[in-house]
Automatic annotation (TrEMBL):
The lineage of its organism: Bacteria, Pseudomonadati, Pseudomonadota, Alphaproteobacteria, Rhodobacterales. GO terms for cellular component: plasma membrane. Its main location: membrane. InterPro entries: ABC_transp_permease, BCAA_transport_permease. GO terms for molecular function: L-isoleucine transmembrane transporter activity; L-leucine transmembrane transporter activity; L-phenylalanine transmembrane transporter activity; L-valine transmembrane transporter activity. It is found in: Cell membrane. It is a multi-pass membrane protein. This is Branched-chain amino acid ABC transporter permease. The keyword ATP-binding does not apply. Belongs to the binding-protein-dependent transport system permease family. LivHM subfamily.
Length: 297
């Protein structure tokens, strides 16, 4: 029982990170219909800011907001420079643009910084463990769980009570009608990218805090998992993105912990098989978006 509870805490920490990343993808997709595969590079930017802050002996409590701010600014710049000029094009055009932006940034990271993984200096506190209800849990895991809860509460408040958040919700329901009501497209889309950058920055801090390193491809695998989580929860649904992220985290951790040793090499295929099984039962995702009426045929 203790092992189960221990692994549940680990699953909550990992699932929370996936949920934040899936939310960042879902926010942009719900408004623009774009899966931004350059989202992972926002994580990498935040990770490198943490690395350089550590080299410059900047306190971690200052380095974290700097890293998150860098991710937000990079997301806004990405929208303005790369996506706004092609926004009137097809969905395929924007998708190719997102891949191009991701590859350009990866090459820049490799050539201007390093192609190898670089260590990130972290406070000693993050490597400590504490006892909670008889369980020994890492401080970094507790920080990940707490940060996820704070961000989810903040996002819920922002979407319901802030003017920009309400405008985003209206645009996600029907962008054309929202524009007729006076909502400015550029402002809403830039706000969506800024919010996705915020979520990517927080996720990057959580990811680096548990791995203490950063590399040019750091964001690729987490965002790929977040994309799977977004589909699992219901593409375009914010609540679905959260549900899918946590479910994927639980699947990964429980398989790693409880799958027999001789089956561990099949862990990833089994995990994807579970995801496919869920989608066979719920083809539109766990919590489908009200604006997406896709049906199995």
């Amino acid at each position: 029982m203790e092992l189960f509870l221990q692994q549940t805490a680990n699953a909550l920490a990992l699932g929370g990170t996936y949920a934040l990343l899936a939310l960042g993808l879902a926010v942009v997709f719900s408004i623009m219909g774009l899966i931004n595969f350059a989202h992972g590079e926002l994580m990498t930017i935040a990770g490198y800011v943490l690395m350089y802050c550590g080299i410059a002996s900047v306190p971690f409590v200052i380095a974290v907001p700097l890293a998150i701010t860098a991710s937000v600014l990079a997301a806004v710049a990405m929208e303005r420079i790369a996506f706004r000029p092609v926004r009137s094009g097809s969905g395929a055009t924007m998708l190719v643009t997102s891949f191009a932006v991701a590859m350009i940034l990866q090459v820049l990271f490799q050539n201007l910084i390093s192609a190898r993984s670089q260590p990130v200096l972290l406070p000693a506190l993050l490597s400590d463990s504490v006892r909670v209800f008889g369980l020994v849990i890492g401080v970094n895991k507790l920080a990940a769980i707490a940060s996820t809860i704070v961000m989810l509460v903040f996002l819920d408040w922002f979407m319901k009570h802030q003017k920009t958040g309400v405008a985003m919700r209206a645009a996600a329901e029907d962008f054309a009608v929202a524009r007729l009501m006076g909502i400015r497209a550029n402002t809403v889309i830039a706000g969506a990218f800024a919010l996705s950058g915020l979520l990517a920055g927080v996720a990057a801090v959580l990811w680096v805090s548990q791995r203490a390193s950063v590399d040019p491809l750091m964001g690729f695998m987490p965002v790929l998992k977040a994309f799977i989580a977004a589909i699992l929860g219901g593409l375009g649904s914010l609540r679905g993105a959260v549900a899918g992220g946590f479910l994927l985290g639980f699947i990964e951790i429980y398989l790693a912990a409880f799958l027999p040793p001789e089956m561990q090499e099949f862990r990833d295929p089994i995990g994807l098989g579970i995801v496919v099984l869920v989608l066979l039962i719920r083809p539109n995702g766990l919590i489908p978006s009200a604006t997406l009426k896709a049906e199995k045929v």
